Fold:
Amino acid sequence: MTKADAENSFIVVTQVGNQTFGIVVDGVFHTEEIVVKPMSSKLRHIPMFSGNTILGDGSVIMIIDPNGIVSAVGSGVVSAQEKAADAEAKRGDFDKLISMLVFRAGGNEPKAVPLSLVTRLEEIEVSKIEYSNGRHLTQYRGTLMPLVPVNAGVSIRAAGAQPMLVFSDSGRSMGLVVDEIIDIVEDRLDIQVSSDRIGILGSAVIKGQATEIIDVGHFLPLAFEDWFKRKEMSEESLTRRLLFVDDSPFFRNMLTPVLKAAGYQVTAVGEPKQALELARSGVGFHVIVSDIEMPEMNGFELAEALRADPRTASLPIIALSSLTNPAAIERGRQAGFHDYVAKFDRHGLIAALKETSLEYGVAA
Structure:
């Protein structure tokens, strides 16, 4: 690499276990919500890729596997002790590390939101921010994007660039106006103190500091009142009953509105054993969406228990997991999952539900 190339390159900082390393890339375009599909059997011998996906324009891209890169570079990059610790974490660490975007808005106390929910980080020139119909807007990628402040203490700057978090879904975007973007960190998300304040789920310790976790679901309808309504919702979808299993109240609160917006009658529970009882009770669920990493009984064991019972053997089950490597996907297939979707991949989850609906019909 020449000096000029080095100056024009970017480094993607990645962590595998306790090992942090950088991947040198030519450019960074944007974030994209995708459905990761398993690699073709003819390409599975290539360890650097974990799967592929098809973008909206029809192009196929490969998904890089950081673990595969470490293996390709050499076994010396990660010690045997670190590998064992990483494997143990995948098996039994239920307080999963989550990438969080930390920012300030309306005060010095930090706030955070799961990074995977954020489409882009933007700094919009104040001169490009307009005021119409009683609200601030900006022209963003050919459409008008409403700007919503996190709280009353945040106001549009008088000059310069205004930082904001962009959330996009189904061709619409909103900008969440903040004062300052601080950092992207990876930590356990454990909301220890709940909140009665609108727009705040509660407080958690993020990188050693008390941090407010914002409720993204509160702000989206402030931009578009019908954000959670789907025009293509059919009478058929409104009659479908879905059982959602996740031990984390945060993820249940985050995804339940998304599932309801897709037209499902959602029953959300925090324990696989409770889910088993409900599924066997004759309620008549049409599909189950289950987290994988749960204590006492994980998602694989839940799927195997459902498959072993004649009353629930044919019930479609979709896995929702932060682990989307080929080994985990194959383990899910063996356990009896009909589809395997990455956590926070809302489009992928809705697509999997639609596919399941077409394949199995509305009969319980």
Notes: Residues 3-92 form a domain with the SH3 type barrels. fold (CATH 2.30.30.40). The chain has three domains: 3-92, 97-223, 235-360. The mean pLDDT is 81.
